[in-house]
Specification:
Elements (H helix, E strand, L loop, with lengths): L11 H15 L11 H8 L3 H13 L3 E4 L3 E4 L18 H26 L2 H19 L5 H14 L9 H15 L4 H16 L3 H27 L1
Antiparallel strand pairs: 1-2
């Protein structure tokens, strides 16, 4: 009797999705690069266009590709990284989650700042300062600064030069968004001050000062959130 153990039982679009993923890897396509159109992919893979279309949809759900209407199919930013990989949005107690995320950030991000001070390029530091200024401007205008705050902390993670660190970015992003939602931007002005301390330390290549500044920034976040939670309980 034939052993069917190794027969691939997945659907054709799923198998073609793997082939397209291999194509992206083998061609070393970067974030934002455009893939060949459906007809070209179908010809390359010797498969029907409808199957290619279904395969691309699968890769969109895997956060590998994105479809831009009228433009084509492109390699996604943070390819393969899910926006909420640990399912935080389904946590019932968001206040407790906010504190827990602050604790995790205190474990991780001071060391990232330490590493960034050693590895950031002059161009990186210019970009960090620009993001820092953007956050300060939005805080002064009393506008939501969450998006720029996320970009600021993401940039520090990228500055480490460690290839694994960017994979942690969605967790950091979730923590920042949760904190801002829960605190309603309480003590936002203090964030502008500690952000600048972090940038100044990285610019000076002072790794210890960068770590201390990040610890101060995150401890402020934790204390603010803890205080708000305690007031809500009383």
């Amino acid at each position: 009797m034939q052993d069917n153990f190794f027969i691939d039982s997945r659907s054709l679009p799923e198998r073609v999705a793997d082939k397209i993923e291999e194509f992206v890897i083998n061609r070393n396509l970067k974030t934002g690069e455009k893939l060949p159109n459906e007809m070209e992919l179908a010809s390359t893979l010797n498969i029907g266009r409808s199957t290619v279309r279904e395969a691309i949809k699968i890769l969109v759900t895997r956060n590998i590709l994105e479809i831009r209407r009228g433009s084509g199919t492109f390699v996604r930013e943070s390819v393969g990284v899910m926006d909420d990989p640990l399912g935080f949005r389904f946590e019932h107690d968001q206040k407790k989650l906010g504190l827990d995320l602050c604790e995790i950030r205190l474990m991780i991000e001071p060391q990232l700042a330490f590493m960034a001070a050693s590895h950031a390029t002059d161009k990186d530091i210019v970009q960090l300062q620009e993001l820092c200024d953007d956050v300060t401007r939005l805080i002064n205008l009393k506008e939501n600064y969450g998006s720029q705050d996320i970009k600021f902390h993401t940039k520090i993670a990228v500055c480490t030069g460690n290839r694994v660190v960017p994979k942690l970015i969605p967790i950091i992003n979730t923590a920042i968004g949760t904190y801002i939602d829960l605190t309603n931007s309480a003590l936002a002005g203090r964030a502008a001050i500690t952000h600048q301390k972090i940038v100044d330390a990285i610019r000076s290549r002072d790794a210890l000062a960068a770590r201390a500044a990040m610890e101060e920034h995150l401890q402020d976040n934790y204390n603010t959130l803890l205080s708000i939670n305690q007031q809500a309980e009383n």
